[in-house]
Amino acid sequence: MSEERSLNFLEEIIEQDIAAGTHNGRVHTRFPPEPNGYLHIGHATSICLNFGLAKKYNGKCNLRFDDTNPTTEETEYVENIKNDIKWLGFQWDNEFYASDYFDKLYEFATLLISKGLAYVDDSTAEEIAATKGSTTTPGTNSPYRSRTIEENLHLFTEMRAGKYKDGEKTLRAKVDMAHPNLLLRDPLMYRIKHEHHHRTGNKWCIYPMYDFAHGQSDSIEEITHSICTLEFIHHRPLYNWFIEQLGIFPSRQYEFARRNLTYTVMSKRKLLQLVNEKHVTGWDDPRMPTISGMRRRGYPPEALRTFSDTIGIAKRENIVDIGMLEFCVREQLNKKANRVMAVLDPVRLIVTNYPEGVTEVFHAENNPEDQSAGTREVPFSRELWIEREDFMEEAPKKFFRLAPGNKVRLKNAYIVTCDGCVKDESGTITEIHCTYLPESKSGNDTSGLTVKGTIHWVSIQHAKTAEVRLYDRLFRVEDPSNEDGDFKDYINPDSVQTLPSVFIEPAMAKTMPGQSVQFMRKGYFCADTDSTPDRLIFNRTVTLKDAWAKEQKRN
Ligand code: ATP
Ligand code: MG
User: N or C: which end of the chain has fewer CB within 10 A?
Assistant: First the structure.
């Protein structure tokens, strides 16, 4: 983004804070994932925002695992989250775990009890819900609200010691059961859960609620600007209430709108369903909106960062067109992906006047956008594979590819004239015949001819084969979460098409997993994680142009 871009609202707040000397002008953000799934593109934008602000203002950014819920969290997720952040190009200043603060949080809770600001409640979840009141009616006080400080301290110790079963008791903050904000009507601080935690093991059987863990963790780390998504806006008064009552470091919460993307779903709960019910091959399936899926599909990290910068931040929920992300991906790949020739739907082309048994080696430029990318050797011979769609027996006027009598250039090689084709009994074309003009050799063309079409090809004798996976949108509709019924009813049944043997240039035999290439005229592709020299596999990252938009318009 250009330096002249106007400040977004968070930058404005930060610059005001720096000018006013708030927190001594220090900027310290954090990215707080819950390790209950893989990160998705929404998280990626939050990462870019938090790490980006820290970098811009010479501040720091912590990575904090928000691991206060033992039921859903796993170490596997922790490792993948770290890997994804590094791949995106960011390095955290500190790695923390909210679970490391369990002792401290317990102390804070005890302090609030001692101040008469928290109490142990024996009500069931249903009873608590029933006394909450509504936006128009006040709630009613729990019969346990008037317990003495001593009794509460004692009961809370017993809760911790494991004397009670799950759900038998909770610890609640004593705020105001008539508060206009329902979240302040004596919110839960602790619940009993006899569960193993991925880091603290069986040490605890009481776990703090989000509202009693998040702000306190921010405060312990002396986070200056705690940025979260909009659904927490009503939690902010509670965030501040706990910090004020405890008299701890005054972190401040700021909210921005969640970023959503068309033709996908973003919540981890839904993504987990796709994985568990095998609608995809895993969290890193190239159709998933996860960072690991996008990486496997071949999206470069720079593209994700540019995307995040481009869409900016908003205060209202919005859904961003996936086309915007794909635009960023193409822009990056155009700069860095080598051009190669691959024939996805092959038919034979015989250059009838080219000598049999001869191989000519051309030196082809790897990337016209990048001279430093060098050249590679491309063998040419009498029999070539070309795309079936590049020939038409009876072609309309504007068809500038092969048709009887038409001239086209074979990329990096010669101009050929199409002479016709051979068919089998069923009428399927089995061979196309052409003649070449020796004086039209690429780089040394003295033919004086100009042709309107250039097609790609691979020499049959030298071709290698690869499996190619063509990916499309995972969903048929723009916003599957907003449709009637289950979001899974809207899965696109044709989101992947596997081509088992595509012919590729021999130079591609050494493509390493994760490496991106452009199959000329076909799109950007990336060697899959499972690709080996013996079994090459390429994933289509994105088409060259926005074929989808065109398709939609036609329908
Ligand atoms: P999900 O609902 O997808 O599971 P989450 O908010 O529960 O997401 P967390 O692991 O708690 O996931 O999120 C870590 C950080 O990423 C939070 O600060 C959260 O606000 C932010 N974040 C999550 N989803 C998005 C999104 N779609 N756009 C922007 N930021 C997001
Ligand atoms: Mg969450």
Answer: C
